[in-house]
Design a protein that fits this description.
- It is a single chain.
- The chain is 45% helix and 19% strand.
- It is an alpha/beta fold and 496 residues long.
- The protein has a 16-stranded mixed beta sheet that branches.
- α4 packs antiparallel against α10, α6 runs parallel beside α7 and α7 packs parallel to α9.
- The radius of gyration is 25 Å and the shape is globular.
Length: 496
Amino acid sequence: MTDDITISGAGAWVVLIASVLVLVLIVTIALVSLVVVPRNRRPQSALAWLLLIYILPLIGFLLFLMLGSRRLPKRRREQQEEINRYILETTEGMDRVSKESPWPPWLEPIVELNRNLGAMPLVGGNTARLFTDYSASIAAMTEAVRAARRSVHVEFYIMSVDDETEPFFLALGDAVARGVGVRVLYDHVASLRVSGYRRMRARLDAIGAEHHPMLPVRPFRGQWQRPDLRNHRKFLIVDGAVGFTGSQNLIERGYRRRKRRDGSRLAWKEVMVRFEGPIVAGIEALFATDWYSETHELLLRETVIPPEIDPGQGLDAQVVPSGPAFEGENNLRLFNSLVYAAQEQIQICSPYFVPDESMLYAITTAAQSGLDVQLFVSEVGDQTLVFHAQRSYYEELLRAGVRIWLYRSPTVLHAKHFTIDDQVAIIGSSNMDMRSFSLNLEVSVMVRGASFIRELRAIEQSYRDNSRELTLEQWLGRPAHMRIFDDLARVTATVQ
């Protein structure tokens, strides 16, 4: 009997000591988090992390240790600085910039901002062709590869061999066979998530293309960084003379997904642009940056004589790289500057619209100032949490006077571009969300030219023709449980 009491008493002491130790650990985590988490972080992001840590102390703190840093490894950042110096020394086409009327007075400081942030200058004498048909853009890229004589540089967030992309891979194989240098980059995690990843790599091996995954997460090989820091860029450069970029990945239009419960299948709507002129060297420089980062091989820029463009007919353009390899959020700074500079209208197309506080203020301020502000998004989402986080902003936008157009299901409007007045357009891979601002490597191209703006205006009108406009009355009438889900998703979107 005495032994039982002794054992019971000892057990109670063990439980008490363990409880005290856990309590001390939780308090320590809470105090340390208060100091560490807010450091160099947006207040809304810091609050989201602290909320997670306080609700689930051990799990939340471990997740913060794994995912809390938004910076790439030091060596990667040093390589970016080396490339920036190289870009500054080898850029051509600055003398072709046309500052004829109407040259808005607010544009010069924005050009300088972009130059300081990403090293790329504004260059003139460019031509551009927009593609809104999914198959047509892949066909155009395939045709460009078939005409290649010296080099083909391919970089996409997601790549897949399927019925839609098969001709492109055949063209790559033919290019290698005739002695063209073919180099391919694809995001490791994003492409790995798509069925057929090993088949795609095997195909590239078989045709003899040199290829590498970007930002690989392979701890057993010593390759590790925060796993959700991804390379989201998408471009193709042929012979250093022709460049494609935009929103489209190299995969069939349905992303190899199954049909939904109603029998429909999601289909992606994209915009790609084909550039010729000095701007292609800027896109090529970004490929060189990413190639150097993954292979430690510096590709020397090819000497290319840009095509002659009639004075006043060419487009001025500037490549704006962004992502965790840079100190600042280059794309966010550019977007906010343009929104505040607008005098008449702002047309935004972003599939994942989850703005930070500064962008939300800029957009709602523009609308409240009487500007025509319109947002094109999808009626249906392919990423549940992001889709509902996006919806949580609709009420505030509508109350400010922003017009919201919902592209009809089952199409996912995945294009990424916006226009400011009739002066400037942005097109590229960057969404207007906190992931693209902070966690993804992106490419944006700022374009000035009346013909380009007119084409984008026509594309925006085609969106309206295939959308329904959301009203505040309709939005306020949605079910209460959906409001709760939207708001909860908004909190998760700020955890970075």
